């Protein structure tokens, strides 16, 4: 049973227009605000009280106020009665094109053209870098294709990092925070005792997203239950070997983001984004030139 019913009202402010989907932690609806128009509403499955909702969404609200074009804006938060009891919700800007998984699956082959994939990754890193540059850094902890929204501004791709509901500030001493997220996208160290999430862990998740965009495969089909298992498995196959359109230099950047050894991985989204931007600038238009020959 869904938490909200299409066509119902929440107070005199929101009308539930359409169910959009769900994840492990929430259901998503398209709603119409009485004055502000169409928005997206996430209803949290496990959080009930307003105090708990505010605590969970504290970092999301903080980041939304920065107004970065690659971060989803959060407008409102509160609680709503549902058949399962009171549940917390928050509203954010509605992106009609959907999430990155929708975008990826809309491609004929399932893999995204290399130039588009790099542009998506550069914008994803730009939004995530805002969180990582905070003092102390904020870790998203759940970067997946379902939490990245893709739309268009004047026919140009525009990417927004969404769902900061699991975001947490790292501890000042350790530079780490508790581990949460989607197992297939979690870094090896994030599995250790449940207390290993860091900006470098978000980088690993971006690397997993990049691999999926370029190859239509996850870097690892198995999800290790322990840090030991993750650290001792061989590196994934190079994206270049799975998709010849992927330049070896770009493949190296992706594999660098997926390094099990923290000392060899990009430390945060800004560093990864710089590497991707440098590659993008050096190879701008290469695909078009090759096609014209």
Fold and architecture overview:
The protein is globular and about 55 Å long. It has helices spanning 50-56, 58-64, 100-105, 114-132, 199-215, 227-231, 239-242, 248-257, 269-282, 286-292; strands at residues 9-10, 14-22, 26-33, 37-44, 74-82, 85-93, 138-139, 148-153, 156-161, 168-169. Mean pLDDT is 85; it is low at 288-293. It has two domains: 9-93, 2-Layer Sandwich (Phosphorylase Kinase, domain 1), CATH 3.30.200.20; 100-288, Transferase(Phosphotransferase) domain 1 (Transferase(Phosphotransferase), domain 1, Orthogonal Bundle), CATH 1.10.510. The strands form three sheets. The protein has a six-stranded antiparallel beta sheet. It has a two-stranded antiparallel sheet with strand order 7-10. The chain has a two-stranded antiparallel sheet with strand order 8-9. Helix content is 33%, strand content 21%. The longest helix has 19 residues, at 114-132. It has ten helices and ten strands. A hairpin with a 3-residue loop joins strand 1 and strand 2. With 293 residues, it is an alpha+beta fold.
CATH-defined architecture of the largest domain: Orthogonal Bundle
Record field, number of beta strands: 10
Radius of gyration from the alpha-carbon trace, in angstroms: 19 Å
Q: Supply the number of structural domains.
A: 2
InterPro entries: Kinase-like_dom_sf (IPR011009), NEK_Ser/Thr_kinase (IPR050660), Prot_kinase_dom (IPR000719), Tyr_kinase_AS (IPR008266)
Keywords: ATP-binding, Kinase, Nucleotide-binding, Transferase
GO molecular function, one term: protein serine/threonine kinase activity
Protein name: non-specific serine/threonine protein kinase
């Amino acid at each position: 049973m869904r938490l909200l019913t299409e066509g119902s009202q929440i107070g005199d402010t929101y009308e539930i227009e359409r169910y959009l989907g769900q994840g492990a932690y929430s259901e998503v609806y398209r709603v119409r605000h009485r004055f502000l128009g169409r928005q997206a509403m996430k209803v949290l499955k496990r959080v009930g009280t307003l105090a708990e909702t505010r605590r969970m969404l504290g970092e999301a609200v903080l980041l939304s106020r920065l107004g970065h074009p690659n971060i989803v804006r959060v407008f409102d938060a509160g609680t709503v009665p549902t058949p399962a009891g009171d549940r917390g919700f928050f509203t954010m800007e509605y992106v009609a094109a959907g999430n990155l998984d929708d975008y990826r699956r809309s491609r004929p082959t399932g893999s995204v053209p290399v130039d588009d994939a790099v542009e998506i990754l550069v914008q994803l890193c730009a939004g995530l870098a805002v969180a990582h540059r905070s003092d102390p850094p904020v870790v998203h902890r759940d970067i997946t294709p379902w939490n990245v929204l893709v739309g268009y501004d004047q026919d140009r791709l525009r990417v927004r990092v969404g769902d900061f509901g699991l975001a947490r500030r790292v501890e000042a001493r350790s530079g780490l925070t508790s581990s949460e997220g989607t197992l297939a996208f979690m870094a090896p160290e994030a599995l250790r005792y449940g207390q290993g999430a860091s900006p470098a862990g978000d980088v690993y998740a971006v690397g997993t997203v990049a691999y999926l965009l370029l190859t239509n495969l996850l870097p690892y089909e198995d999800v290790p239950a322990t840090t030991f298992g993750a650290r001792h498995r061989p590196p994934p196959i190079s994206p270049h070997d799975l998709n010849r359109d992927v330049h070896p230099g770009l493949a190296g950047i992706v594999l660098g983001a997926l390094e099990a050894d923290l000392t060899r991985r990009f430390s945060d989204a800004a560093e990864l984004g710089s590497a991707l931007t440098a590659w993008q600038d050096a190879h701008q238009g290469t695909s078009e030139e090759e096609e014209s020959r």
